[in-house]
């Protein structure tokens, strides 16, 4: 049986790093589902197609190839914004969720991270984590990341952006960002990535024992 680990949480909470680390530790396949929304948005932008036509966006979503997703070509701020706009469309979500569910069945196990994995995509996941941190901490992490990469950043603008993205992700009618009832909450505001990983590992090991 495939073991699924579902990791949800708001933007810049550290889900990505944590999910990659977990997938590596257990030898599982990893899918960053945010990239599926970003790839759909980028394809629309590149083709000069509208971001507010659900039928067009659904068609593009159905053509997204999961195998070739690469965050480095999808990381632009404009792509993230466009992604969160098309992510409110039920037909787009249906198309991407189908592909994500197919991925989740890969043997021997999978780690999926996003906003609705534990609630909608994989409600039967063996382990569900809801990774969060305060908006201030998340904005600071994003700021540090940009500066460390040699870029210039405006903390106040990033902070506003984090809050705006939260509102859109938590406020949408279809699959809003919220912890699944059976998710373990992991607040990383005052935790290093290593400490968050160790906390996650303890929870996963306990679930693995139960699933044997
Ligand atoms: O995680 P990332 O910031 O790359 O995701 C981009 C956008 O895609 C999010 O702001 C969210 O609106 C959307 N998304 C989603 N459901 C997911 C993953 C991402 O709605 N499972």
Structural features, described:
There is one protein chain. The protein is α/β, with parallel strands linked by helices and 212 residues long. The chain has helices at residues 15-26, 34-46, 54-62, 71-74, 77-86, 90-104, 117-121, 135-148, 155-171, 193-211, and strands spanning 3-8, 29-32, 109-114, 127-132, 184-187. A five-stranded parallel sheet has the order 2-3-1-4-5, with helices on both faces. The longest helix has 19 residues, at 193-211. The model has no long low-confidence stretch (mean pLDDT 94). It binds cytidine-5'-monophosphate.
Order of helices and strands: EHEHHHHHEHEHHEH
Which radius of gyration do the C-alpha atoms yield? 17 Å
Give, in spatial order, the strands making up the sheet with the most strands.
2-3-1-4-5
The level-1 CATH class of the largest domain? Alpha Beta
**SS element count, helices:** 10
Termini separation (Å)?
A: 10 Å
Main features:
single chain; 212 residues; alpha/beta; Rossmann fold; 2 domains; 5-stranded parallel beta sheet; binds cytidine-5'-monophosphate
Question: In a nutshell, what does this entry contain?
Answer:
By secondary structure, the protein is α/β, with parallel strands linked by helices. Helix content is about 55%, strand content about 10%. It has a five-stranded parallel β-sheet with strand order 2-3-1-4-5, sandwiched between helices.
How are the elements arranged and paired?
Layout (H helix, E strand, L loop, with lengths): L2 E6 L6 H12 L2 E4 L1 H13 L7 H9 L8 H4 L2 H10 L3 H15 L4 E6 L2 H5 L5 E6 L2 H14 L6 H17 L12 E4 L5 H19 L1
Parallel strand pairs: 1-3, 1-4, 2-3, 4-5
The structure holds cytidine-5'-monophosphate (C5P).
């Amino acid at each position: 049986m495939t073991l699924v680990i579902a990791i949800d949480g708001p933007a810049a909470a550290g889900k990505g790093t944590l999910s990659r680390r977990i997938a590596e530790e257990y030898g599982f396949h990893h899918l960053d589902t945010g990239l599926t929304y970003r790839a759909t948005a980028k394809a629309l932008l590149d083709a000069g197609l509208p971001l507010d036509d659900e039928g067009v966006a659904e068609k593009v979503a159905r053509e997204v190839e999961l195998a070739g997703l690469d965050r480095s070509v999808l990381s632009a701020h404009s792509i993230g914004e466009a992604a969160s706009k098309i992510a409110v469309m039920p037909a787009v979500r249906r198309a991407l969720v189908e592909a994500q569910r197919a991925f989740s069945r890969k043997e021997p196990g999978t780690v999926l991270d996003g906003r609705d994995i534990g609630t909608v995509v994989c409600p039967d996941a063996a382990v569900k984590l809801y990774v969060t941190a305060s908006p201030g901490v998340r904005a600071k992490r994003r700021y540090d990341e940009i500066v460390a990469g040699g870029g210039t950043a405006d903390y106040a603008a990033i902070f506003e952006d984090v809050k705006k993205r939260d509102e859109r992700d938590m406020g949408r009618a279809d699959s809003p960002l919220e912890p699944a009832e059976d998710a373990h909450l992991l607040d990383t505001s005052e935790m290093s990535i290593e400490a968050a990983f160790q906390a996650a590992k303890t929870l996963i090991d306990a679930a693995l024992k139960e699933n044997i």
